[in-house]
Amino acid sequence: MAQNEKMTQDAWLFKLINKNKLKIQTTYFEFGNISTFERDKAENIRDLSDSERAKVIEQMKNYWANHERSSKEFLVNGAVVSCSQGTKLSKIKGKDHGVYTDSIGGQALLNEDDRNIYSELFASIFGSCKYETGKNKKCKAEIFSKWYGTNQSTQIGEGKASLTMSSYMNCPFHSKALIQPVTSGQEFNFSDSLFKYPKFVVESREEVIYSNVGYWNSYNFYKRKINMTVIRKLAIRNMSFLNPTIDQTNSKGYYERKWLEYLAKYVLLCNDKDILKNIINAFYEDVEVSIFSRGERCELLENYNLLMESALLVLNKVIEHQNNEDYLRTVGILPSGENIIIRMIENYFLLFIVSKLCIYTLYEKVSDNPPIELKQIAVFSEQRSDDIEAYYKNGVRIDYATHVYYANKTLFLLKSISESEAYIGKNADIDVVGTYTYISPVKSEDDVDDIGNIWKYFDKGKATYFRETLLVNVVATVILSNLDGTVALVASLLWTVVGSFAAQKAEETLQNKFDEIAYEQSGDSLMQLIKSLKAYIIYANIGKDYHSFVYNILPGKETEKIIYTFLDNIGKIYLKDKNSKKEECLFEILELGDNVKGTTYERINQLIKALTTTISIRKIPGVDIDGVETGMGILKNLKQLSVEAIIENKREKFDIEANVLLDGEKISIENFNCCTATGINVNILFRELLRRN
Length: 693
Prior knowledge:
About 25% of the residues lie in helices and about 20% in strands.
């Protein structure tokens, strides 16, 4: 790799036409003796013969005939040009306009003002001119006035059109002589990957060109062999200068963006942690983060965000159509003995969590210390009271380095100081520490019982009204907010543990519908809800305390049907104190209302809020005391629901009636199939329509 990157463009063109280096002889005198030795001359395109020059032009013409609409087509400083009537190749001598091919710098892109062409000392730019007559047939051109065929939609510098392989100039002396690009100047940096890029798949049978999107859209990327060199190029490619035309089929960066989408699909399907690690590191290893930037990564991870956006779109569509095998086959997600949905959720969550970490990297040391390491956590991990890893069995541990003030909040002062360059100085030592982040495997149904243990880990020694509770707020993980409004924002939400356990205000958003409130959440209620919905849950810890705990819930194959059944049932249940004349539908008490008319994702998260976080019992008509309960707690006790309180030194009890509206008549819930001898079978409320016994 390093050797390929050091290859010059001239050397690459020599290799392209299988031309060896020229040999030159050197004679020197030493102690009266004459010695002659032969050495290699550095490759120079000016040394190509007429036939070799024609071969280079033909090879590159054939390449670009099949590789249009790529950002490689933009000309950079040093692009090789030819004159249609000349005998020598030359190069464009452009300026640095501050726009580069790669996010880490790379080659400077040219604009319409870059009209200078290299010429060797005492030599003409393009050798001999076929239009010149007489003894002196040397090319006389030195100054060129204008580029034609420029790209106006992508501007480089201050409002200047960019140059592409379609651009050309006229000779100032012979208007029919055209100066045209032979190379864009970028090709040699791709070395042997040039003819593959941006296709990262290595095919074992007949090659299919990267631009055949009809073929690749339905391609199954599972367990395919990949070219990491191409992936690294995609990871660092500068997409920003291509906007706003990047999504148009005829734009120069269309296929690179398309292959980032295909890479997202490959990542979601990948079952090899080492390959996942290598792909993620390809996006991070060239990102140098210093203490002066306080861990900010700016535009260098723009392509990683594009990868995540694409992965989220694919995941959402697959979850939405997870019961439709024909659709899954159409998009290349073929059903198999393995649970593809679970792997896709786990891999997306890995991408997402990595994006939220403050990963410290140092460019010159990446080969020795990759940005992240992924380690599978053994199922038989030793359980110690002080080690959170035991609660992530069969999950993943991400090892990475971070600034010390991100690892320890008590060192917040260091962060404040670092914001002043005058104080810290440019030679200050950077304190970097190794740390871990844990991600669970996807859990569903009976597996979710494990969550109870981690809930207790965060809630040690805390007695609560509901056994185990945590304060949570809701943060939308929608990373598509900047995309076109026609894209359905159906992402699930990331629930995060925040602040203290006391009631407090906290900023939160549930797709712009929740109030700004922090909710005390019951772990038991959450586990019961996930089981009842047959949903998936995955969670993570960025640290070892509850502040860093996050979890994400996504629908399973039966979840949508279960939600419809549940909403139908609670819309028929009415509650009131037995002495009250007024009654209220359980649907309204839980504050569901119009909030459950969105996507399945939105409904799930509204149910999480309604059933697992605390609500005031004053919402039940006739109950005039302060107190809180979860929605799930109310459901479990519908058969014998009562509230006791001390009012003016006297114990008072409120007995709650639960009736079901059926055929215009309200009947006690005790007469319905959800009731057992001991209480309420919550699963029936979710999975069967209410009917009289």
